[in-house]
Fold each of these.
Amino acid sequence: MSRPGAPHRAPATQLASLAVLGDVGRPATLTVPDLRDGWKQHRAEVVFDCATSGPQHHVFEGPLLREVALASYPLFDTRRRKDRSRFALAVSGGDGHHTVLAWAEIDADFGDAPVLLATRLDDEDLDAAGSQLVVPVDRCGARYIGAITRVWVGAWPGAR
Ligand SMILES: Nc1nc2c(c(=O)[nH]1)N[C@H]1C(S)=C(S)[C@@H](COP(=O)(O)O)O[C@H]1N2
Ligand SMILES: [Mo]
């Protein structure tokens, strides 16, 4: 039960957001509540190894990275696998840590990896902390980028 006049959500200043940008038709800025309200939430129980702190067990919930990226209309021909396979994604955290994935890793016709942009971590909302990348196919935790600020989607330009 909320107090009369109390906001239903945290004030905007406490909401982290990420930008989807690059070779896309419709760049977007999305808060964690946007990621929760706009797409089906998937759940992943994962174990990953950290080089410094050992095995970590977590439960994440959030939309598929693929679905969120597709909503920004990557500039490939969606019907052509070879065109899609030229694309990559770069995911950046607020601290500058970043990683890349091949589009083919998350494409249903290729690796079909259920990579998530988490909105919840161990039953806690990530609204203020920011979304975290969840890569269940990885043995180690280095690509579980936290406090995501940018998801770049683009194509290697190739030989010109
Ligand atoms: N933004 C950001 N995300 C990051 C890192 C980082 O340095 N910066 N470290 C990664 C590493 S090496 C690991 S093992 C996991 C640790 O996740 P945990 O803190 O939930 O165990 O976060 C990953 N995500
Ligand atoms: Mo780590």
Note: Residues 87 and 93 are 20 Å apart (CA to CA).
Amino acid sequence: MARKNDTLCLHLEEDEGDCRFFGAVSFPIFQTATYSHPALGQSTGFDYSRLQNPTREHLEKIVAQLEGGIDAFAVSSGMAAVALLTEIFQPGDEIIADSDLYGGSIRLFDNVLKNKGVKVCYTECYKSDFKHLITPKTKAVYIETPTNPMMNVTDIAKTAETAHNHNLLLVVDNTFLSPYFQNPLKLGADVVIHSGTKFLSGHNDTLAGFIVTNRADIQEKLRFFIKTTGSGLAPFDSWLVERGIKTLAVRMDKAQSNAFKIAQWLENQPKVRRVIYPGLPNHPGYEIMKRQARGFGSMITFEVENKALVEQILGKVRLIKFAESLGGVETLITYPTTQTHADVPEETRLKNGITDCVLRLSVGIENAEDLIEELQNVIS
Ligand SMILES: *Cc1c(COP(=O)(O)O)cnc(C)c1O
């Protein structure tokens, strides 16, 4: 019988029964840059750590297994993963992207990728509304679901079908749900991106990024680019992320249960104008989420009545940290306007609904009552 998702967070199937490395239960950190060879023309399988390192390879196999891909690539950050993926595009190519994306991805597309001659056209992909942008030059559709920070939900299977009918790749940034809750490749996507800094490592202590694919042609290109450009994740950081993934299932279950309680509590606060959490049945993406994911995650976006209240909340929180990032065990509150989305043009930001009264919570694994008590203190 196939191993279940929570088991796969801890064990690589191919390792079962294996007692390599003195039976070490925690896969060792191979802190080495290079590898000696027994003789000319022979190799242990490893030559130089820019190409591959055993600890990084082990982590990559775990992530590939969790996402259902043929291969995964561990790199130094989520943005390094997005940047690495853009290497597969050529000058003249076009990409259709969701207009509500992580701010760093938009910055990369609009400043770096554009200079390479690759054009990114933005639209609201969650409305399945992108066919009019397809030209003979279009090569890929790039989405997040749910989006950061407005939590728009895109039907992955439907988007994959449209993309494939036009010979386009579908790339899904799956950071917000992690492979524990959602597997885009199994729904038809060709490439999955993760900021491993977030839920996968889970402890707000390391940066990492992943690309996972089930396409052999993309796998081959990316192996070549990693070897050539050198953004592969370091051995110690690979070990930290692997260690984090062991508790992915328990962390996400607990964080999600906290998020439900907090979202419901926020909905009843007179000074909170709007609560956007895809686990609430009033969320427009609720039914799609139920179909394509196994959970709703622990990210909540909410809008308060005025900017003064935003300032009050951010100045008063103590247990909850006012910080960028998400997906860790500690609860964080983020202000997209000046943090994650500061470099997104104001017009786009406001069009997407990211007003200066919008806050984003990444709910951690503290006791929900303590979190609600703190929110009560800072919002009232
Ligand atoms: C954080 C984030 C990234 C970028 O990852 P880093 O590890 O910070 O470089 C990309 N996509 C999403 C959805 C993110 O939340």
Note: The mean pLDDT is 96.
Amino acid sequence: MERLVVATTAVAHFFCIFLIFSVAKADGDFTGELNIHRRSPVNGLCAQLIAPSGYPCEEHTIQTKDGYLLGLQRVSSSGESFEGQRGFPVLLQHGLFMSGDAWFLDSIDQSLGFILADRGFDVWVGNVRGTRWSHGHTSLSEKDKEFWDWSWEELALYDLAEMIHFVNLVTNSKIFVVGHSQGTIMSLAAFTQPDIVKMVEAAALLCPISYLEHISAPFVHRIVNMHLDRVILAMGIHQLNFKSDVGAYILDSICDGHVDCNDLLTSITGENCCFNNSRVDFYLEYEPHPSSSKNLNHLFQMIRKGTFAKYDYGIWKNLKQYGQLKPPEFDLSRIPESLPLWMAYGGNDALADVMDVQHTLKDLQSKPELLYLEKYGHIDFLLSVNAKEDVFDSMIAFFKSWRRSSSI
Ligand SMILES: *[C@@H]1O[C@H](CO)[C@@H](O)[C@H](O)[C@H]1NC(C)=O
């Protein structure tokens, strides 16, 4: 049982990777407009985790083009009312198997969400489809396999796009975007789309990922080699939920005799120097959140092929879907040179490997500001007890420098 818990934590953090998006054309492509309703606050992220620490927090629900209902929270500094002057808007985009709660899991002086609110930012918290805070669809139920028919490509082009558009609309301002892990994949993909990137003032990427070719985590190699992604899809498992019996069974069978699952977190993410082990039970009350098997499959395609491209359906369906044999790549050189980027990456990160980060940098037109922390692993960038001093202070200084030069 203990092994399972450790395994679950690890997987929770495993793909905490990515970000978002890219949709579209004109504003008419977004459904956000003011098609919003307030959620019952009782079971929301605000009521559960943010408001109890004394931070004013609003729940919003937005609808994506393909019908998913996403929860979005707006947080301000404690002691300030919403009537007061708002700071510059910043949208936080979590990683794989996580959700918006990831930014609030440590104490108020350690967690990025609280720190940004205290520093005067207008904090918006994103939650992708399928997570606990974004459950729902206009016509599908989570029991339908169609509900889980998406990967990070949709998280980028629909979910992130819609969130950015909504915050842009409500605040009447360009916005800052922060992504961790999968949140950075989503962001980089989205920023290649002119109609999304035009709403973004600057972005900060923690554990930036676009290429996954050099991933060094032994556990990941094992499940890629055993084709876990294809096996579970073939078994008809479309929702990946490690809190379910099926999810626990999958983990147990992977660990069985092959990987040291007592140290699974390290096997997956790399050695994390600085997070607080005695808080793991608390983290597990929130993580991991569900994702889709198709998303895992898409990520594994990137590992196998070394590309940053749309989902590969195989040649025949690619022809039908894309009009070409191979899926189109996301072209990082299309991200405008004028978009200020800040990136933090670690020498012990087994998921956002230094070589892959360098590949990303080579493809970009701009020269992002870089913060390299030799001892940091994948989780440290979110949950290190020293993350404020090591990472967040520098990120905030970057944002403040761009805010001064912005027109708003
Ligand atoms: C680690 O977590 C425990 C339990 O929540 C807490 O009491 C302690 O202050 C934390 N340590 C640090 C350095 O944040």
Note: The longest strand covers residues 57-63.
